[in-house]
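Late entry, written up from scratch paper. The run itself happened at the end of the previous shift, but nothing got recorded in the book at the time, so transcribing now.
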Amino acid sequence: MVDTLWILVLLAVLAFILYKVFRFKRITIFEHQKGLKYSHGRHAGVLGAGQYWILPAFTSIVPVDIRPEFVTIPGQDVVSADGVTVKISLAAEYEVADPNQAINKTANYRNALYLTLQMALRELVTTEKIDDLMQNRATIGKKFLESSVAKAKEYGLTLKLVDVKDVMFAGEMKRAYAQVVKAQKEGQAALERARGETAALRNLANAARIMDDNPNLLQLRALQAFSESAGNTMVFGLPNSSVPITKQKPQNDSGAPKDREGRED
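Output as recorded:
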């Protein structure tokens, strides 16, 4: 009886150990994730979305989010090619393309990408003039993208977009640049006004030349203006030869004036 009891205890302990060692565990990889599978601590593959049963004692699965993410590089004080100190900030969009490369080959891929963009910012701004930075911000963003995309790929990332968020000046430089921009805008406005006045004078000269060749056009234009006016009084100056101003009295056959009854004097 005692031996049977000891055998049952041993079997229960053995069953408990087997349950702990060989207990299966269910892992779910969602649509926005990929799973890194490890067997005895070694990388064994990349899993897609789905449910997987594993033995935790021998196998593990680490989910990795592959949705697009954003990183912001705050204002960095950089000197442009023409010696102007500016503070520029960047915004970048990226996503994990190779989870194995991002997790197993890089200690922290987010910090690595941040440092890469920061260094690219300093290297590129030193080769650009301040006017180009202000006027061609979209082009500058493309240059940042081209200079950083290869390095991001080494971290297992796909760099999708890099854009310049802000370009800021120091207090005195900000006022000076504002004055320069104001002077440029005033010069452009003066140039446009001069062009408009020149075009107006040219049109008037052409009209005068046409009216000299065709004097009747002036009268036709006056009649047109008169027909378009409403409730206005217009005075025309006409030469004396155009309208007769004398009126002759009616005479009888003999040439003598008649009285009221038609008798001749």
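Residues 171-213 form the longest helix (43 residues).
(Scratch paper discarded after transcription.)
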